[in-house]
Design a protein that fits this description.
Distance between the termini: 7 Å
Oligomer: single chain
Shape: globular
CATH class of the largest domain: Alpha Beta
CATH topology of the largest domain: Isopropylmalate Dehydrogenase
Order of helices and strands: EHHEHEEHEHHEEHHEHEHEHEEEEH
Strand order of the largest sheet: 3-4-2-1-5-14-13-6-7-10-8-9
Structural class: alpha/beta
Strand content: 15-25%
CATH architecture of the largest domain: 3-Layer(aba) Sandwich
Number of domains: 2
Radius of gyration: 20 Å
CATH superfamily of the largest domain: Isopropylmalate Dehydrogenase
Number of helices: 12
Mean pLDDT: 93
Helix content: 25-40%
Length: about 350
């Protein structure tokens, strides 16, 4: 039986409802899984209108009532959006609160074993904070809910898989956070994640923090004092790990097939190469013609994947329905693969 995947609607004022209905209009998605939307039935109906698709929206009270049939979108509706008050394309407390409630509901279902994985549409950090949820994003929210301190963000696009040691912190705060045990923990998570993606003996590359990986201490000592010892210990544990490798070449090598996964030290160090792989901007149209890539939270007791883009408020609610669902489709595919690797078929 195909895995049951809970898809959270994200911020109702963004493109979440639109990209979800576009993805769920495809045979491809129903060939992979049994999708269940956790969201608001009124907002999902607006998504169908914007996308101009011939789809029925069907309310269910629990996963067992869902039909999982193309042409009908099953929605476990929390009824927490007043569509008459919703302002598309702007952060607002109602949408921020609702987006968090979808994630909490889906995570609870996953921890009870009712769904094999959760896939999240984008939420907005400002709207979340306006609603009283002071989180930097999904990753931190889910880690707190699951009670885990050993977690990491992984991004995937094309041949690149990247795990981050630090994420949503100011750049000046990164160097003090680069500690041996922290780096070692992310190496472990990266190796486990690569295995869950079907790689039997993952080749893990660890990026340096400083230019030229510190150049023997001339440009910083984090490589000598923290990163190299973590790499050596991982090697002693039997992992195929190399590093620290200068960050200006490690991603080129990984994209070329030399490594299966890269451990990056900070947010933009890992995000920029991944988005160069997955995003394509067309000057003539002024649009992103390709928006692919997947965000995965590692270290949780359940599988969670997400789109690798934001709420795109500038596109939200436009009647031409220009939002691209490719990243969501990719996120569903990765969730299915990782859930099956955990034998999570429900």
């Amino acid at each position: 039986m195909k895995p049951l995947i809970a898809i959270t609607m994200g911020d109702a004022a963004g493109i979440g409802p639109e990209i979800i209905v576009k993805a769920l209009s495809l045979d491809e998605v129903y060939g992979m899984c049994r999708p269940l939307v956790v969201g608001d039935i009124g907002a999902m109906g607006m998504g169908v209108e914007v996308a101009a698709l011939d789809l029925a929206i069907r309310r269910v009270e629990n996963p067992w009532e869902a039909l999982f049939r193309k042409g009908t979108v099953d929605v476990l509706s929390l009824d927490n959006i007043d569509v008459d008050r919703l302002v598309m394309g702007r952060p607002q407390p109602m949408a921020g609160r609702a987006s968090v409630e979808y994630v909490l509901k889906a995570a609870e279902m996953a921890m009870r074993g009712e769904v094999a994985a959760i896939v999240t549409a984008p939420l907005n950090k400002e709207a979340m904070n306006m609603a009283g949820y002071p989180y930097a994003g999904h990753t931190e929210l889910l880690a707190e809910l699951a009670g885990t301190e050993d977690y990491a963000m992984m991004l995937l696009a094309g041949p690149l898989r990247v795990v981050h040691v630090t994420t949503h912190v100011a750049l000046r705060e990164v160097p003090p956070l680069i500690k041996k045990e922290t780096v070692l923990g992310k190496i472990r998570l990266a190796e486990e994640a690569a295995r869950s993606l079907g790689i039997d003996v993952p080749r893990v590359a660890v990026a340096g923090l400083n230019p030229h990986s510190g150049e023997g201490g001339l440009f910083g000592r984090e490589e000598i004092e923290e990163i190299e010892p973590a790499v050596r210990e991982a090697q002693g544990l039997g992992m195929d790990v190399d590093g620290p490798i200068p960050p200006d070449t490690v991603f080129v090598k990984a994209a070329g097939g030399m490594y299966d996964i890269v451990v990056a030290m900070y947010h933009d160090q890992g995000h920029i190469p991944v988005k160069l792989q997955g995003f394509r901007y067309e000057e003539g149209s002024g649009r992103m013609e390709s928006v692919s890539g997947v965000n995965v939270t590692l270290g949780l007791p359940f599988v969670r994947t997400s789109v690798d883009h934001g709420t795109a408020y500038g596109k939200a609610g436009r009647r031409e329905g220009t939002a691209n669902p490719q990243s969501l489709i990719d996120a569903i595919r990765v969730a299915v693969q990782m859930a099956e690797a955990r034998s999570g078929i429900f």
